[in-house]
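[User] Could I get a sequence and C-alpha cells?

[Assistant]
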Amino acid sequence: MKQFAVIGLGNFSFKAAITLSEKGCQVIAIDKDMDKINDIKNYVTEAISIDVKDKKTLSTLGLENMDAVLVGLGESMEASILTTLYLKEMNVKNIIVKAMSRDHAAIVTKLGATRTIIPEEEMAIRLANSLVSKNIIDHIPMADGFTVSEITAPFSFVGKTISELHVRNIYKVEIIAIRKGFKKDNGEVGEIEKTTQMPSASTVIEKNDIILVFGKEEDVIKLQKL
C-alpha cells in the first residue's frame, strides 16, 4: 500500500489528501491549524497538528519512508521553502511542492523538490486549450514537450480499426484509451457510458468516441485539427 504525507491543508492539498485516501493509500495530513485537522481527520489515516517550521518535530514523523510528500504551503513561501529544505535533509525521495509562482517553483526545485505544481497556471493552460480548439476536451502538458489529450475522434477515423489508422506511423501518437459518449442537442459530448483503456489494434472507432492520445504536443495538435 502506498504511503503519502500532505503538509498544509489548503483547498488543493485538502482535496488531494482525501482523494489519495479514497484510492486506498495511507495518508498523513499535517497542518498547524487544528480546525483543518478536525475537518480531515475522519478521511485520512492520521491527522497531525504541528508547526512544520519546527524541524525537530517534523523529523520524528518518518516522512522519509513515504512514497511522496506533498507540500501544499503555497500561501506561505517561507514555510514552503523551509519545509522543502527540511524534507530534502531527511532524505525524502519524492517531494512535490505546490508553488505560488515560477520563481517559487525555481527556488524549491534547487532545494530538492522533485516536482512543482502551479495549479492556477496549469488550469489556465488547460482551459485556454479547450477554448481555442473545438475538438480538444482536456489537455495535460507533460515533461519534454509531450502531452496527454482527450479529443473527439476525427470524422476520418470513424468506422476504422486502430490498426487500419496506423496512428503511430502516420500521426506519431498513441491511442491509450477510448471513451464512448453520446452527443447532446448542442453538439457537445454528453455523459460517458464506457471507457476502454489500452484498446486493441482491432478496436473500431465509432461516432462520438473520445480518444485519449499521448504524444508530442505538436503532433497532438495536428491530429486534433483533422
About this structure: The two ends are 43 Å apart (CA to CA). The chain has nine helices and eleven strands. The CA atoms of residues 182 and 190 lie 5 Å apart. Residues 183-187 have pLDDT under 50 and may be disordered.
